[in-house]
Amino acid sequence: MTVDMNRGLWLAGALAAGLQMGFAGGALAADEFIVVQSTTSTANSGLLDAILPEFTEGSGIEVRVVAVGTGQAIKNAINGDGDVLLVHAKPAEEKFVADGWGVQRFDVMYNDFVLVGPEDDPAGIKGGSDIVAALQGVAEAGAVFASRGDDSGTHKAELRHWQAADVDVAAVSGDWYRETGSGMGATLNAAQGMGAYVLTDRATWISFGNKDGMEIMVEGDERLLNQYGVILVNPEKHPGVKGDAGQAFIDWLIGDEGQTAIAGYQVDGQQLFFPNAE
């Protein structure tokens, strides 16, 4: 399938795959839009819906977002199904650029991950600040843990912590370790229903509306930093990439206007993302 065909069918493909999409701005000419491959957390948190209209108003460029796990977003970008990549798995992002699929990576913003669990806390880990010790406690108790299991940035981070805890979750998959294969919101819902522990980005947790019986168990570990980066898909790999428009979006996002918009986004009086572009 050609790049042009991919672009012409991007909406149909996204819907067929059950992807979540966001739109900014009104009806513009067909060549005045870019496609951003991003994560479910930027969509579930409401961030992109809040800030993209400001970019569109100033630039005349509509931004269409395909919100999936980071791993899938990177695959989509490698296939040429997007102009910009906005995700949160720095090693994978750096490899994307090193392999020639992206032009340059920029830090955009950060927040953190938190370990959430049932109020009765069967693993006895509430109030801790050591994510590795907490996961060891979950494993020792055989307490139910809900994993996204979808190669997302959150899933990649979670697996790093299990590895540091010396726990082979593949060996207990389907037992106390349950993989949903879903986005963050759906996995939080599943965890709520199962009384399970789950690792989530704080922005999605703050925005999540089904918290009954759940609370934050572990937070504050520096290893729980959640950094986001933005990359222009390489037009030399995919001539259909809208390099100028994509770079205009990146420049806005990491510039004063975009960074101010990110810092100003709040839910229930809480700032969800902290800009840190250099």
Range of strand content = 15-25%
Beta-strand segment tally: 13
Low-confidence stretches are 1-30
Counting helices, strands and paired strands, the structural category is alpha+beta
Our measurement of the CA-to-CA distance between the termini, rounded to an integer number of angstroms, reads: 38 Å
Describe this structure in words.
- This protein is of the alpha+beta class and 278 residues long.
- The protein is 40% helix and 25% strand.
- It contains 12 helices and 13 strands.
- The strands form 3 sheets. Strands 1, 2, 3, 4, 5, 8, 9, 10 and 13 form a 9-stranded mixed β-sheet that branches. Strands 6-7 form a two-stranded parallel ribbon.
- Helix 8 links the parallel strand 6 and strand 7.
- It starts with a helix and ends with a strand.
- The N terminus is likely disordered.
Blueprint (SSEs and pairs):
Blueprint: H1 3-8, H2 10-16, E1 20-23, E2 33-39, H3 40-44, H4 47-59, E3 62-68, H5 70-78, E4 84-87, H6 90-98, E5 102-118, H7 131-141, E6 145-147, H8 153-164, E7 177-179, H9 184-194, E8 198-201, H10 202-207, E9 214-218, E10 225-233, H11 243-254, H12 256-264, E11 266-267, E12 270-271, E13 274-275
Parallel strand pairs: 2-3, 2-4, 6-7
Antiparallel strand pairs: 1-3, 4-10, 5-8, 5-9, 5-10, 5-13, 11-12
Outline of the structure:
With 278 residues, the protein is an alpha+beta fold. 40% of the residues lie in helices and 25% in strands.
Key features of this structure:
alpha+beta, two-stranded parallel sheet, 12 helices, 278 residues, disordered N terminus, single chain
